[in-house]
Predict the 3D structure of the following.
Amino acid sequence: MADHALHHDHPHGLAHQFEDMPQQKESAVIGMWSFLITEILFFGGFFATYLIYRSYYPEAFFEGSSHLDIPMGAFNTIVLIVSSLTMAMAVHKSHEGNKRGILVYLTLTGILGLTFLVVKYFEYSAKIEYGLVPGLAWHPHGENSPQLALFYSLYFGMTGMHALHMIIGIGLLIWVFVKAAQGTYTAEYNAPVEIFGLYWHFVDIVWIFLFPLLYLLGTQGGGH
Amino acid sequence: MADDHHGPTVRIYLAVFASLMFLTALTVWVAFQDLGMFNDVVALGIACTKATIVILFFMHVKYASRLTWLLAGAGILFLLILFAFAMADYVSRGWLGMPASHYLQ
């Protein structure tokens, strides 16, 4: 153990409290998963609220869902899945210590993340235009207007929080990109790329559930 | 050594990607079929399958330590507890045919 304290024996990127690189990486991965548990339960609160109110007001939820743009939602689902592939490839390249590979795949991931946000911007703009934003621009005056507002509050709350996670993700991506460009990551030291990947895939998973629950719900017209 | 890392190969990543794309197309197609109450079941089943694939392969949990499995599993377990207990309350409220305030007096 004392040998590790010797300067020439100290691997690049290994913090002094760890025995070796695998142990350090394991700690980083476990730390990220601990954070992701809090994230799962954070979004879980939204999903539980959605489930409860949907079981209370199925008709209003079907109607609200039918006003969402399925092609845009499906396009964004594909964009995020492709971005998960490019992110996985960036992590793969980091295991090889391939700096150029990391930079190329991180760039692609970032572009796809921005694409998602641009599509989301157009979707939000359309909702504002049609007066489907509870509290800001709300036009429905039918009998079920309050229940409809509940659906749209959840829509904006859930997709808004998801979009915020995307924005934070792109910020983190830029940081990992800069570090990678500086040559920080090697075949031995690449935990930051790996755990950023975990975060990115988690945000993808949230959308995997948001898309059917919010967008595809309205296709059956509430006939049952 | 990079070779010591037991992660998925590029071929596996591409297969995972293809299955995720297929399941996305499938969930959109199924949404337009009238399956009655089973539309929800199928949509959620597909979403859970996609999430599981992402967690196992893209997030490397299949190749990770037991402790990582424990953490990922704990997150999902507590999520299910959250859903089950909340729904058990809200769904069963009308079962006895009287307002809850009756019990509070």
